[in-house]
Amino acid sequence: MGNEPKRIIDVADMDQHQAYKLSTGLIVPRPIGWIGTVDSDRNQNLAPYSFFNVVAQYPPTFVVAPVLGYRKDTLANLEQTREFTVNVVTEETVAAMNATAEGFDADVDEFARTGLTAVQANTVQAPLVQEATANFECVVTQLIPVGKPSGDLPGTGMLVIGEATCIHVAERVVDDNFNIDQVELKAVGRHVGGLYSTTATTLFEVERPT
Which fold is adopted by the domain 29-197? Predict the structure, then answer.
């Protein structure tokens, strides 16, 4: 397999759609940041992002990158209040997560529209998803523009960096040493289009070198 032919593609020769298809088709599965926010008037918003990850250990630090050029209430809310929640997507909540991706108008409460329960957080004003197995309360520390425009299409995003201030975890998935039961968690990752995968049935272990 190491000698198999590979297609070599110069990014400068690609358009945005081609680049997006390759990057999101190859970098899989991607964790889903199910982001809860409020605006300055405390109107609630909830939306999923697969341009998302954890990038530092302490305090736990996350990045999420909404694409500029498309109407997204999440970024506007983050810029206004600089607070958000990350709600972990699992098999039990993947359908509800997908429903919040519809792109409702700014005055629509995704919690009410999709039948989810908004819970007041401990340290931020942004809402928690009660049905989520775990949640992180976060504050924004940096907003960094990334990417380049691609013709008449938005090719740029805003890299939002946030630090966790409080963590909620269902007792059934965490032990006294803060180890998370990966099978019980049933976390879901994003692939392409409508494809998702779960870690619950595909786990395998590789011994790390010492």
Answer: Pnp Oxidase; Chain A (2.30.110)
